[in-house]
Specification:
Elements (H helix, E strand, L loop, with lengths): L1 E6 L9 E6 L8 H10 L1 H8 L9 E5 L7 E6 L10 H18 L4 E4 L11 H16 L9 E6 L2 H13 L1
Parallel strand pairs: 1-6, 2-4, 2-5, 5-6
Antiparallel strand pairs: 3-4
Amino acid sequence: MRIEIVRGDITTQEVDAVVNAANSSLLGGGGVDGAIHRAAGPSLLAECRTLGGCPTGEARITGGYDLPARHVIHTVGPVWRGGDHDEASLLASCYTSSMALAREHGCEVVAFPAISCGVYGYPLAAAAEASVGAVRLSGEKGPIECPAIVRWVLFDRACFEAWQTALTAR
Protein backbone atom coordinates (compact mmCIF):
# COMPACT_ATOMS: atom_id res chain seq x y z
CA MET A 1 0.00 0.00 0.00
CA ARG A 2 1.27 3.43 -0.95
CA ILE A 3 0.31 6.42 1.21
CA GLU A 4 0.16 9.89 -0.32
CA ILE A 5 -0.73 13.34 0.93
CA VAL A 6 -1.75 16.23 -1.28
CA ARG A 7 -3.22 19.66 -0.81
CA GLY A 8 -6.41 20.09 -2.72
CA ASP A 9 -10.12 19.55 -3.08
CA ILE A 10 -11.29 16.00 -2.31
CA THR A 11 -14.32 16.44 -4.57
CA THR A 12 -12.09 16.55 -7.67
CA GLN A 13 -10.18 13.33 -6.96
CA GLU A 14 -10.44 10.64 -9.65
CA VAL A 15 -10.38 7.68 -7.26
CA ASP A 16 -12.45 4.62 -6.52
CA ALA A 17 -13.76 6.12 -3.27
CA VAL A 18 -13.66 9.41 -1.45
CA VAL A 19 -14.26 9.35 2.27
CA ASN A 20 -16.74 11.85 3.63
CA ALA A 21 -16.31 13.29 7.11
CA ALA A 22 -20.05 13.08 7.71
CA ASN A 23 -22.38 13.81 10.57
CA SER A 24 -24.46 10.99 12.02
CA SER A 25 -27.53 11.79 9.89
CA LEU A 26 -25.50 11.37 6.65
CA LEU A 27 -27.75 14.07 5.17
CA GLY A 28 -25.09 16.69 4.49
CA GLY A 29 -23.65 19.50 6.52
CA GLY A 30 -20.78 21.94 6.36
CA GLY A 31 -17.12 21.59 5.46
CA VAL A 32 -16.07 18.45 3.58
CA ASP A 33 -19.52 16.90 4.06
CA GLY A 34 -21.30 19.82 2.41
CA ALA A 35 -18.75 20.03 -0.40
CA ILE A 36 -19.11 16.32 -1.21
CA HIS A 37 -22.91 16.51 -1.18
CA ARG A 38 -22.91 19.59 -3.44
CA ALA A 39 -20.45 18.05 -5.90
CA ALA A 40 -22.17 14.64 -5.98
CA GLY A 41 -25.61 16.10 -6.63
CA PRO A 42 -29.06 15.32 -5.24
CA SER A 43 -28.88 11.56 -5.90
CA LEU A 44 -26.31 11.23 -3.10
CA LEU A 45 -28.70 12.75 -0.58
CA ALA A 46 -31.49 10.51 -1.83
CA GLU A 47 -29.38 7.38 -1.27
CA CYS A 48 -28.16 8.62 2.12
CA ARG A 49 -31.78 9.00 3.23
CA THR A 50 -32.18 5.22 2.83
CA LEU A 51 -29.26 4.38 5.16
CA GLY A 52 -30.75 5.41 8.49
CA GLY A 53 -27.71 7.35 9.65
CA CYS A 54 -24.38 6.13 10.99
CA PRO A 55 -22.92 5.96 14.52
CA THR A 56 -19.61 7.60 15.40
CA GLY A 57 -16.65 5.44 14.39
CA GLU A 58 -18.54 3.45 11.76
CA ALA A 59 -18.84 3.89 7.99
CA ARG A 60 -21.41 3.47 5.20
CA ILE A 61 -20.89 3.39 1.42
CA THR A 62 -22.91 4.94 -1.40
CA GLY A 63 -22.47 5.68 -5.06
CA GLY A 64 -20.36 8.65 -6.11
CA TYR A 65 -22.96 10.09 -8.52
CA ASP A 66 -21.62 13.33 -10.07
CA LEU A 67 -18.21 13.01 -8.37
CA PRO A 68 -15.27 11.59 -10.33
CA ALA A 69 -15.19 8.83 -7.66
CA ARG A 70 -17.18 5.60 -7.97
CA HIS A 71 -18.12 5.58 -4.29
CA VAL A 72 -18.45 7.81 -1.27
CA ILE A 73 -17.58 6.20 2.06
CA HIS A 74 -19.29 8.18 4.82
CA THR A 75 -17.78 8.01 8.28
CA VAL A 76 -18.67 9.88 11.44
CA GLY A 77 -15.72 11.13 13.44
CA PRO A 78 -15.78 11.99 17.12
CA VAL A 79 -16.22 15.49 18.47
CA TRP A 80 -13.10 16.45 20.44
CA ARG A 81 -13.99 16.67 24.13
CA GLY A 82 -10.50 16.92 25.61
CA GLY A 83 -9.22 13.45 24.74
CA ASP A 84 -10.68 11.54 27.68
CA HIS A 85 -13.86 10.32 25.96
CA ASP A 86 -12.51 7.56 23.70
CA GLU A 87 -11.90 10.01 20.85
CA ALA A 88 -8.67 8.34 19.69
CA SER A 89 -10.19 4.87 19.30
CA LEU A 90 -13.33 6.29 17.66
CA LEU A 91 -11.23 8.24 15.16
CA ALA A 92 -9.07 5.19 14.41
CA SER A 93 -12.28 3.20 13.90
CA CYS A 94 -13.42 5.71 11.26
CA TYR A 95 -10.33 4.87 9.23
CA THR A 96 -10.39 1.11 9.77
CA SER A 97 -14.13 0.92 9.01
CA SER A 98 -13.60 2.96 5.85
CA MET A 99 -10.69 0.78 4.78
CA ALA A 100 -12.80 -2.36 5.34
CA LEU A 101 -15.58 -1.00 3.12
CA ALA A 102 -13.03 -0.01 0.47
CA ARG A 103 -11.67 -3.58 0.46
CA GLU A 104 -15.17 -5.10 0.30
CA HIS A 105 -16.01 -2.97 -2.73
CA GLY A 106 -12.74 -3.48 -4.60
CA CYS A 107 -11.48 0.07 -4.24
CA GLU A 108 -7.87 0.39 -5.40
CA VAL A 109 -7.48 4.11 -4.62
CA VAL A 110 -9.12 5.83 -1.64
CA ALA A 111 -8.99 9.52 -0.74
CA PHE A 112 -9.44 10.64 2.88
CA PRO A 113 -9.98 14.09 4.36
CA ALA A 114 -8.81 15.12 7.83
CA ILE A 115 -11.73 13.51 9.69
CA SER A 116 -12.94 15.41 12.80
CA CYS A 117 -10.48 18.28 12.30
CA GLY A 118 -12.97 20.95 11.23
CA VAL A 119 -15.90 21.94 13.39
CA TYR A 120 -15.45 18.76 15.48
CA GLY A 121 -12.26 20.34 16.85
CA TYR A 122 -9.85 17.37 16.87
CA PRO A 123 -6.25 18.63 17.28
CA LEU A 124 -4.41 18.23 13.97
CA ALA A 125 -1.26 16.49 15.21
CA ALA A 126 -3.21 13.94 17.25
CA ALA A 127 -5.65 13.29 14.39
CA ALA A 128 -2.84 12.85 11.88
CA GLU A 129 -0.98 10.41 14.11
CA ALA A 130 -4.11 8.35 14.85
CA SER A 131 -5.21 8.26 11.22
CA VAL A 132 -1.84 7.28 9.78
CA GLY A 133 -1.47 4.56 12.42
CA ALA A 134 -4.94 3.17 11.72
CA VAL A 135 -4.44 3.08 7.95
CA ARG A 136 -1.04 1.45 8.26
CA LEU A 137 -2.47 -1.15 10.61
CA SER A 138 -5.29 -1.84 8.13
CA GLY A 139 -2.69 -2.23 5.40
CA GLU A 140 -0.86 -4.95 7.31
CA LYS A 141 -3.56 -7.40 6.19
CA GLY A 142 -1.64 -7.64 2.93
CA PRO A 143 -1.66 -5.86 -0.42
CA ILE A 144 -4.38 -8.08 -1.88
CA GLU A 145 -6.82 -7.17 0.87
CA CYS A 146 -6.29 -3.41 1.00
CA PRO A 147 -6.41 -0.46 -1.38
CA ALA A 148 -3.19 -0.01 -3.36
CA ILE A 149 -3.15 3.75 -2.74
CA VAL A 150 -4.45 5.70 0.24
CA ARG A 151 -4.34 9.44 -0.31
CA TRP A 152 -5.08 12.19 2.17
CA VAL A 153 -6.44 15.22 0.37
CA LEU A 154 -6.02 18.14 2.71
CA PHE A 155 -7.48 21.52 2.01
CA ASP A 156 -5.24 23.75 4.09
CA ARG A 157 -1.55 24.08 4.86
CA ALA A 158 -1.83 23.32 8.60
CA CYS A 159 -3.51 19.95 7.92
CA PHE A 160 -1.03 19.13 5.18
CA GLU A 161 1.93 19.83 7.49
CA ALA A 162 0.42 17.78 10.34
CA TRP A 163 0.00 14.76 8.05
CA GLN A 164 3.48 15.21 6.59
CA THR A 165 4.91 15.13 10.10
CA ALA A 166 2.88 12.04 11.05
CA LEU A 167 3.93 10.18 7.91
CA THR A 168 7.63 10.89 8.36
CA ALA A 169 7.56 10.11 12.11
CA ARG A 170 6.58 6.46 11.58
